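debug: dumping io for the single-chain case to check the tokenizer round-trip. Nothing else runs in this session.
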Amino acid sequence: MAQVSVIMPVYNSAEYVPDAARSVLEQDYDDFELVLVDDGSTDGSGTVCNELAAQHANVRVLHKPNGGMCSARNYALDRIETPYVAFCDNDDHYLPHLLRDNMHILTTSGADCVYYGRQLAIYDDASDRPRISVTKPKKHTVLRGQEIRDQYDLARSGSDAVWACIYRREVIERAGLRFDERLRHGHEDTIFTLQFLRAAEAIALNPQYYYVWMRRTSHSSSFSITDDLKLGYETAVNLECALIEDWDVARRLPDYCSDCMARYLLNPLETAMLAGNISYKQMLPLYEWLHDFFAPRAAYFQGKLAPSRRAFCSLILKGHYRLAYACMRAAQVYVAHTKRG
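debug: decoded output
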């Protein structure tokens, strides 16, 4: 039996999945299986998956009716038996040594998971070169027991995405963790990450980045606040706040709490910016929702924040929506002229 299963949900991604799968299959670590979950694709992706399985003995294909990313991941989790599990999206890339380096950390440290860094490459219509950013844990270490609580800011310094971590499957099963299949518009990863963190007894952090998140946007003006987006977002924030309260993080690490809440507040606004030229009328429901949700949590914003972030959060919390919109548009102009590479 392999040591780790790499779960890759596949939906209508025939153009991208061969490269994504190749980045996993070319890893310099042999003891893994790649589980391709064809989630009811209609573009021939299922055939591409079958061809990959015919060419590689360590590729397994699961076919199922369409149910979304969460459903596909759960479908695979219910059918694997390996001690460890990792994830990869069907249009992203593993970088060299991801499995080798991080499985070594796991097996030598005895940790329940290892978080590593990721690179984000945003492709849009404004340039043929992506905007690049990196998110990674602050340092190479292992946190055990109470250290996870005492150094919560360090434990949460990496990405929330499940593809930026390798997990011990025993902990997932013991805690009964699965992805919320109601969620189709994000935050399911953050929820899973926070639930795993509460259940873990030891976590390893690796500040190197090994994963490339390929984000493609057409700069269309479509943006909406769906019910499941709100559900995922509010569930994630509530879970984070519960950990902050239960582990006394607000008192010990007020600056982290401010930064954490600011990131949550600003994330939907940054997503809206990527959607393009959105009118104030379109943005107003988003501002009102964020105000109503975060106003009762204003105490979490008392720590240090960069002046620009504090000013923008304050505009939302105080209901100054038109000024917030003007600042957002100014930021859009700045980003559009930022050097890409």
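debug: round-trip ok. The domain at 4-216 is CATH 3.90.550.10 (Spore Coat Polysaccharide Biosynthesis Protein SpsA; Chain A).
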